[in-house]
């Protein structure tokens, strides 16, 4: 008669209890640990003698829907004549041109050309629905 071998069962480890124990140990050490406070380091920061920049209000040239010119400078707005713009600007290099939305494009371009001739280097353009 033949000999029959009995098949061996595969041995497997169940990791669930091991994971439970590891989590319990982790929680235990997290709760029971005391944290040490590190000492503070005093740092002497050098003082500065630089003065803060005085930021001026922007200069704005406003053209209303009738083609009238107004200059807003240092928070004050006054009516001006574009022919005398050279006397009014006095070395201003940055200006913002604000016009009504319905103005003719040619009026804006001629104003910008006049400002460029008078030495203004930076010109911004804004349009609004209705300027009062």
Give an overview of the whole structure:
The protein has 132 residues and is an alpha/beta fold. The protein has a domain at 60-128: Nucleotidyltransferase, domain 5. Helices cover 27% and strands 21% of the residues. The protein has helices spanning 16-32, 85-89, 105-117, and strands spanning 60-63, 69-73, 76-80, 94-100, 122-128. It has a 5-stranded mixed beta sheet with strand order 3-2-1-4-5, covered by helices on one side. It is elongated. The mean pLDDT is 82.
Quick structural summary:
Helix content is 27%, strand content 21%.
How is this fold's topology laid out?
Layout: H1 16-32, E1 60-63, E2 69-73, E3 76-80, H2 85-89, E4 94-100, H3 105-117, E5 122-128
Parallel strand pairs: 1-4, 4-5
Antiparallel strand pairs: 1-2, 2-3
The low-confidence runs, each spanning 5 or more residues with pLDDT under 50, are none
Mean pLDDT figure: 82
SS field, number of helical segments: 3
The CATH top-level class label of the domain at 60-128: Alpha Beta
What is the string of helix and strand elements? HEEEHEHE
How many strands, what sense, and barrel or not for the largest sheet? 5 strands, mixed
